[in-house]
Amino acid sequence: MTDKNALIEANEAFYTAFAESNTDLMEELWSGQAEITCIHPGWPPLDGMEEVMGSWHCILSAPSPLIGISDAKAYQYENVGYVVCQEHLEPGVLIATNIFFLENGNWKLVHHQAGISPSNISPSNTEGSRTLQ
Known about the structure:
Layout: H1 3-19, H2 23-29, E1 37-39, E2 46-47, H3 49-61, E3 67-77, E4 80-89, E5 92-103, E6 106-116, H4 123-126
Helix pairs in contact: 1-2
């Protein structure tokens, strides 16, 4: 198996834990050695195991969301890899980046960030916006 395939599998395991509200699996997927961070849509940045896992316990204790992923693409450089994908949640689609660190031969999450997909932004929401250069 290539490292990119292993990254895709690690990413799929993350979404399986999410979809099944499996807090034990969710904790197992995150790095126990590296510093970890997480940014959920509408949340402040979370730093460290206690904050990150606390957020997942809160999210996963709610009724299981129907979540699917598509367009997962893996990138890797030595012992760091990341996957960019679309998260399909009601009522829309988010774009997510999941960063992994190769730890004892296994890809472990060190960062998850999801945000609104450009396809969810209506033209009225972009009026007056500008690009910083």
